[in-house]
Amino acid sequence: MLKKLAIYTLFLIGVDFFINLVINFIQHNAGSVIITSVILRAVCILVFFPFVGIVISTLVKVKGNSALLIITTLTVYALFPVVIYLLKSNNKSLPEVYIDLHVQFNLFAVVFLPYLLASVICILMSNRLRLF
Questions:
Q1: Less packed terminus of the chain by CB within 10 Å, N or C?
Q2: 66: nearest Cα among 13, 125, 9, 10
Q3: What is the reported pTM?
Q4: Domain boundaries, the chain
């Protein structure tokens, strides 16, 4: 299970990086925004996805491993704004950060859209390749 989760996580990071770079180039974002986005994504996915996947797999007995991947994906999705809130030095509260990231399209496209698209692609590919 751990080996499969590690392979899936690396596959997710690769697809996420590619989609993230494409979206950043389409939006003509500065290089510093792209580098910050890549580092944030790498840390969030590498740290949270395996940890959350292991915790969810031990706590929740779900039928089918696709359900495990979907629950883990949604949990990591919810943790992205927490990491951004902890890294930013402004006067916004955590709920305001959540709202801003979902209401402002440019922020949503940079933070969440690549992760959501990569997650859908990786879940479909893992089902197709019988990874889980």
A1: N
A2: 125
A3: 0.82
A4: 2-128
**Residue 126 half-sphere exposure, CB side, CA atoms within 13 Å?**
25
Give the closest residue to 109 by CA, choosing from 40, 37, 15: 37
Compute φ and ψ for 63, nearest 5 degrees: -85, 130
pLDDT tens track, the chain, 132 positions = 778 888 888 888 889 889 988 888 888 878 777 787 888 888 888 888 888 888 888 887 766 677 888 888 888 888 888 888 888 777 888 898 889 888 988 888 888 888 899 999 988 888 887 766
Checking 45-49 for CB contacts under 8 A at 24+ apart, the result is 45/9, 45/12, 45/13, 45/16, 45/76, 45/115, 46/9, 46/13, 48/75, 48/76, 48/79, 49/5, 49/9, 49/12, 49/76
